[in-house]
Amino acid sequence: MSHAAHVGGPAAHDGGDAAHDSGDAAHDGGHVARHAGAGAARAASFPGGVGLSHLRVYDWPTPDGAGAAGGGTPHLHTVSGEAYVVLGGSGGVQTLGSAGYAEHDLAAGTVLWFTPGTVHRLVNDGDLEILVVMQSSGLPEAGDAVLTFPPEVLDDAARYAEAARLPTGDALEVATAARRRRDLALTGYADLVDAVQRRGPAALVGLYDAAARLVAHEIPGWRQTWEAGALAQTRATDEALTALAAAAGQGAAHLADATTRSVVADPGPRHAGMCGWLRTYPLPPRG
Q: Which run of H or E residues covers position 227?
């Protein structure tokens, strides 16, 4: 979901593993100075280059009656994997993918994740709240999600954009538009579920083709975002491994750059996402 709510696994990590003999941590003053600032740059990026948001799944009744309290908008992500860390309430997620149609229960403590291309629909049986972890922060926000509108909408880029757009400003107007958008996506989703149950995963090919066409013009910009964020973090790990190997017991310079950073969730009203009301965390995607 381009929701989103975004943490790199649970964000809190115990610091016990970082306890080392003080002698191992000792570095020559000049050695530290030569690498000053590198750790600060790394700290600017959240671990893994992921995004986080806190999601309250919509409690609007659904046209097909799924979810005792309501449910979200079915969609897929074209590039980003997604994970749910369930914080409270109960419900489930319906998925369409290489294994066909499936239903997965969600309750407090559940962690569930899926890969790009998985059509997913959250259903809310009551007070369902989720910390959403999105791969490659910046790409979901840039629109890597495609909703399951009927084929005639998916095949017309202008019509798709209009159907997916939400207004700004008045809260009631936003909620009405988000609910209308969800219900249109549920119309196409119902046909997809039926087709997958009859023909298997091959029935998703048309949706995948339409999704690729709709996002094709975004790919150059997305690549830049990915290179500056998630890929840069992967390269930093490679550099750290190389530095550790080269240190040969003398310590690695990057360890002297250890830094800490924190953020708080964006203040103000939640905004309407694909699956519910979102509060995001302002995590810089790049160092």
A: helix 219-228
| Paired tokens of 7 | 């943490």
Tell me if 211 sits within 8 A of 78, measured CB to CB: yes
Cα–Cα distance, 205 to 248 (Å, whole number): 52
Distance CA 189, CA 149 (A): 7
Helix (H, G, I), strand (E, B) or coil at 215: helix
| Coil vs helix vs strand at 221 | helix
* Beta carbons within 10 angstroms of residue 37's beta carbon: 10
Burial group, residue 287, by CB count within 10 angstroms (0-12, 13-18, 19+)? middle
On the question of pLDDT at 10 being above 60, the answer is no
- For residue range 229-273, list pLDDT tens digits in order: 899 989 988 988 888 888 765 667 778 888 888 999 988 899 999
DSSP helix/strand/coil, 13: coil
- Kindly report the number of other CB atoms within 10 A of residue 158's CB atom: 7
What pTM was computed for the model? 0.83
